[in-house]
Amino acid sequence: MNLKERFLNRLQGKEVDMTPVGCTTTYAVVAFGQACGYQRPQADTDPKAMAAWALTGPKEAGWEWVKAMGWDIVGISEALGVELGPPTPETQYYVKGHPYAESLEGLEFPADFLSRGRFPVFKEQFKILKERVGEEMVVFGETEGAFTAAANLVGTESFMKWCFKSPDKVDQVLQVTKEAAVAAANFAFDQGADYYVFAEPTSGPALLSPRMYKKIVLPLEQEIIKRVKGPVVLHICANTDSIIEMMCDTGAVGISIEEKANLKAAAEIAHAKGVKVFGNVATATTLFNGTPEACYAESRQALENGTDFLCPGCGVAPPSPVENLRQLKKARDDYFA
Question: CATH number of the domain at 24-276, out of 3.40.50.1820, 3.60.15.10, 3.20.20.210, 1.10.490.10?
């Protein structure tokens, strides 16, 4: 059983010899860039640099699958016209301006969507990764989801207010970002992706109530996932305890959760529904500035709590020490020794 077979068997609910270990979010670690000879912003815009950085995860940390489609979660938003702030070696692209903050006039899904933004670069990165490791390792794609992209187009504060006061405007924006999300995911599967991650930080309970999640986000994700050509993993930040069941009802084959969520309880809910769990070693604290021993202990705890894929709980902070990241595989290997 090679690494790809182990991953896919676990995702499909089949027996495996041990829990796969890796990262299902962004891992633009500065030390990874130093190891492969590339840094930002080149690693955000050059497909060779982007691919080299992706492959450094397995080389430096022992992770068992690789990420395509760059090192941020604004790919859809960028292609729809959101203004981005420039990356630095320690920071990713960020949303700088909202093109439809004042008016939705002119908002539509562009026919040439997949020619915009960095999608042409992503296509080349996929090609490199599939040629290099496609037979041995899983390759996945990731962007923000439709709800988060919609908030980026309008502005998060305004969009959240609209969810309560202007549902017609919310629907108008989501009709566009929904098409973009389907197109982005199917683009990835057309390039050979083995699974796809929608990151939906804006839909989490820290910003949106579970009641509104059920009303707006759940049916949105269900429709998108039905139209996507392959397996989807849904990532939502912060404490998602109150929406775990709904996350599992979206049609996603897996959910990715942070350390703020109760992993043991989430695994029980997810497994009863046939859904896998990715997580949930803390990125903002333990992996970023904790000791290797703390990273090892937290990784082992995640295994004991029932994670199906041992991963960082969110995007890895760029300054994170590689020795901390290596503890995930060390803990996994020891756990199954």
Answer: 3.20.20.210
